[in-house]
Amino acid sequence: ACNELGQIWMESGVSENAVSGHIQLIIPGESACFACAPPLVVAANIDEKTLKREGVCAASLPTTMGVVAGGGVQNVLKYLLNFGTVSYYLGYNAMQDFFPTMSMKPNPQCSDQNCRKQQENYKKREAARPKQEVIEQEEEIVHEDNDWGIELVSETSEEELKAASGPVPELPEGITVAYTIPNKEENLIPEETVADSEESLEELMAKMRNM
Ligand SMILES: [Zn+2]
After folding, report:
1. Cα of 90 from ligand 1 centre, angstroms
2. Which of 36, 43, 161, 163 is 20 to 30 A away from residue 60, measured at CA?
3. Which of 206, 204, 188, 184 is CA-nearest to residue 196?
4. CA 114 to chain centre
5. Known catalytic membership, residue 57
């Protein structure tokens, strides 16, 4: 029906074993519809046959539903409010905490004739759209000459910065530490202590008064 009307459609689902799900954005003509390819499912490394029994309804986990529903609504918000990257397909595997993403082109030999019609319309729309030229903006140079040899120099040296930030663990791509803990032993400031004088408290107080 969405193919007939050209209605953009956000679809989501949770598997029968309730440990995987997906969110899919279907733009008729632009991305694959259900007839183009069977719905994608995320491999959960569980044999579904072991879970399904005659007369027993499919498993359901509110947490999986929550994650998938939240992801779906998030994607709708991104689409409607125009921020971030809208996923065409986002899978969720609860067993491995794995979120695969991908996008699928529609099948030109789709069994749905409306889908094929939408694909033609999409191609026409794309062809009619003027190509956006990438204008390279040259960076403006503020000062052509530097008669006085003025430069910007960092106040802290590289070593000082390293010592202050402490060890940074090796992290996979896309993850950084919010802050680091400085090495305690290296940065200990020697505590200044007053040499022990043999004077009593009263004597010291008297000394203070005379100051
Ligand atoms: Zn299709």
Report:
1. 19
2. 36
3. 204
4. 35
5. yes
From ligand 1's centre to the CA of 45, what distance in Å? Answer: 29
Ligand 1 midpoint to CA 78 (Å): 24
Kindly write down the DSSP assignment for every residue of the chain, as one continuous string.
-HHHHT--EEEEEE-TTSSEEEEEEE-TTTS--TTTSPPP----SS-HHHH--TT-PPP--HHHHHHHHHHHHHHHHHHHHT-S---SEEEEETTTTB--EE--PPPTT-S-HHHHHHHHHHHHHHHHSPPPP-PPPPPPPS-S--TT------SS-HHHHHHHH-------TT---S--PPPTTTTPPPPP-PPPP---HHHHHHHHHH-
- Domain covering 2-128 assigned CATH 3.40.50.620 in the classification: no
Residue 110 C-alpha to ligand 1 middle, in angstroms? 5
Catalytic residue among 2, 33, 36, 57, which?
57
Q: What is the ipTM of this complex?
A: 0.96
Per-residue pLDDT of the chain (211 residues; tens, 9 = 90+): 678 888 888 888 888 888 889 998 988 888 888 778 766 666 655 565 555 566 666 778 899 999 999 999 999 999 999 999 999 999 999 999 999 998 888 888 888 888 899 999 998 988 888 777 777 777 877 777 888 888 888 787 777 777 777 777 787 777 777 777 776 665 556 666 667 777 788 888 888 888 8
Q: Could you identify the residue written with the tokens 């004077």? A: 199
